[in-house]
Amino acid sequence: MSDEQHPDILPEERSIFETPGWIRFMWFFVPGTGLFFALMNIVLAVLHKTHPHFGWLFDKNPVFYGIVGFVSFSFIVLVGQHLRKIVMRPEDYYDGPEATMPRINTDDEVRMRSISLGETDE
Amino acid sequence: MIPFLPAETNPAIILMVAGVLMVFFGPRGRGIIGVIAVALGFLQMYSLGVGPMGDAQMYGITEVAGYEFIPLRLDKLSVVFATIFHIAALVNVIYGWQGATKVEASMGIVYAGSAIGGALAGDLLTLFVFWEIAAISSVFIIWAGGGHAAFKAGMRYLVIQVMSGLLLLAGIALHLVRGGSSEFGAFKLVGEAGVDPVAALILFAFGIKACFPILHTWLQDSYPKASGVGAVMLSAFTTKLAIYALARGFAGTDILIPIGATMTVFPVFFALIENDLRKVLAYSLNNQLGFMVCAIGIGTPLAINGAAAHAFVHITYKALLFMGMGAVLLRTGTTKATDLGGLHKSMPWTTAFTIVGAMSISAFPLFSGFVAKSMITLAAAEEHMLLAWLVLLFASAGVLEHSGIKIPYFAFFAHDRFAPSLRNGAPRPKEAPLSMLIAMGLAAFLCLLVGFYPPVLYGLLPYETDYHAYTLEHVATQMQLLMFAIFAFMLLVRFKLYPPEVRSVNLDVDWFWRVPGRKALMAAVQMTADVWHAIWAALRDITGQVLSGIGAVHRPGGLLARYWTVGYTALTTAAVLAVALLLAFLS
Predict the structure, then answer these.
(1) Cβ distance B311 to B84 under 8 Å?
(2) N or C: which end of chain A has fewer CB within 10 A?
(3) Domain coverage including residue B552
(4) What Å distances lie between residue B296 and B45, B310, B357, CA to CA?
(5) Interchain contact B468–A (C-beta under 8 A)
(6) B425 lies in the same domain as B307
(7) Could you give the C-alpha distances from B164 to B69, B135, B217, in angstroms and in order?
(8) Which residues on chain B are in Cβ contact (under 8 Å) with A53?
(9) pLDDT in tens, A13-62
């Protein structure tokens, strides 16, 4: 994945997905694949192999889907986060301190069995 | 026909009886009974035969007081739903083989049975009965999550579910009183005389369970409070039974298109800001139901096929995602994004299976979501519904955001929070137990099977279809949309525009009845008590005064109880005589 590495973990604790090489690969792979399929769509449109239902503003335009994907995603993330200003409350807003407790189920029967399987609660 | 069973045994009854039997067995016995019951139910259903649309196979028809009961109606629409309910029940049994409590295992199978019974019900009252059993059996699964929060959420869930049942019953009663057929067929919401209130009532009852906007909050409230195993059980049945009921009763009802479109959009924003990943999945479920509701509103054979196909694949990949999160919950004690990350290093199988679920729900080609969702968007385009089509495309990018990227990214990648160096050498969480991995593997296999070979799904659909998902155009357009959306994600993270996860709870419309509604109710209770106390106090005062007045008059020496002299008596008699004379004179 393309995130920055977590600074605190030791180098040997990193997996292949956290190496700079993998992140470089993703920066190449994702837009590359997108462009490949956009190109494919343009070729299909030139060959009249597409079946648009709406006009040039929409699916007649071969790169319409790429634009929709990019713009919709950005819109959701950039605009959606402002919803927090209205609806976000502390974790214990409804349920009090119970809302912040870890939720490991401690049904007696299951606990007995996990002990017998050698899987005690860590 | 299964030889040792009565000829017309309802598969739902097989599962329900098994669910009750499970109470008497230990975990392994429960698992074995569950697998056998699901297999028997499935064989029984297919041995009865499936009719095409409009020519259903019906069994067990009885008439009581002029009302015709049809407990079993098998046509393509009911059987595709009952089939996926059986598959979901099997996955649940395997997933909960080690971890399900007695209540969860038992009620899970009863709940699955009720959904199957509801889908196969041919008349309205049978539907109602299974509708209610589904509500009551599932609330135990929520309560089994443990803790006071789960109990309260279960109570809220129960109130809303039972309300849906009562509205349905009222609708059925009114429908029958005006001479409607007892068979569960299509209703006409808008006739020549305007909106039919009876049909509207029934639609409202279905809409509660199908999570229409504003009626949806029971889902996000309750499902994340169940246990890891319980949430998987819950994710499959209630809402999809409602989708089946809508497809049967309200196909082609125009109002469902804007309702469905709204359902696909608003959860996207709530899922973005939500910290609890199982709650993200609950919002995602709501968004997926929107696609189905929208398709039912479009109502063409392609759209209804799309809705049924989407329900089918959705149950598998949504269960898969909930199973992945259930495994994370089991191993780490939380599903909050703020506390997770880097789990791919110690839970590789869970990671891989969850990614299969995420790619399926995002509708990547070769995964199951692609072959179903493309039918719905195509149906909207074919009907030239530009706005609905645009909304569905927008929502597709939203699905990718919350289920395709957010779930696997924050749980298994992102910031490694379980590195031994960060936790004083504590070991990383272990991989999920074998039974969970088998169940996840089974669901992942189904996602890939349908994705690679769609005819296995298309053969089950209500209407004959020659739809081909894998045209170059479909693949190119969908991949374009997805890859550019992922590119947007990478840019947003790179430039730190992606919102960080925050420990929080986000309000939804249920705030109105959980906070001000509760206060108003408590105020009404207090006011009633106060009014009653005031009335009681006033009554007591008046009674006291009357009694003391009577006492004053009648007590020894009181006005009426004391002795009078002869003179007073003569005077009184004279006064009475004077009045009598006066009256006689005047009249």
Answers:
(1) yes
(2) C
(3) 516-586
(4) 25, 11, 24
(5) no
(6) yes
(7) 21, 9, 14
(8) 381-382, 384, 389
(9) 888 888 889 999 999 999 999 999 999 999 999 998 888 888 888 888 88
